[in-house]
């Protein structure tokens, strides 16, 4: 019973900071044009969690902005992989900024149980994608 009640409470400030702090720091590096691939993944994971929260009806009206932010972030990531530089184009940074800010707002609206569900959903999605890529590599021996 205590476990169920704890899951129904909003995320405490410490947990929100634990989830959003690294995203905010990574965004700052991106803003400065100095983000590493690891920092890019930190932002991407935050926005994936945001999408998972939308799937749980937490800020589902934010889907277009989060989607636009992820699209802009993917473009930055593609260039970062090729050039090693995380420089954003003019429209990209504001889109990623808005998406990360909306993710922070969602964290203030969700319960401990909901964030747990969202984290598991993202982990399943990432693990599933990794499994598919591994299968493709194993069947495409060249």
Q: What topology does this entry show?
A:
Elements: H1 2-7, H2 13-31, H3 37-55, H4 63-83, H5 92-109, H6 112-139
Main β-sheet description: none
Percent of sequence in beta strands? under 5%
Radius of gyration: 16 Å
Give the end-to-end Cα distance, rounded to a whole number of Å. Answer: 55 Å
| Helicity, as a percent range | over 70%
Helix/strand order: HHHHHH
Q: How many runs of DSSP E, i.e. beta strands?
A: 0
Number of H- or I-type helical stretches: 6
**Contiguous uncertain segments of 5+ residues:** 131-142
What does the average pLDDT come to? 88
Shape: globular
Task: Give the domain tally.
Answer: 1
Q: What structural class results from the helix and strand content?
A: mainly alpha
Question: What can you see in these coordinates?
Answer:
It is a single chain. With 142 residues, the chain is mostly helical. The protein has one domain. It is 78% helix and 0% strand. The protein is globular. The model is unreliable at 131-142 (pLDDT under 50).
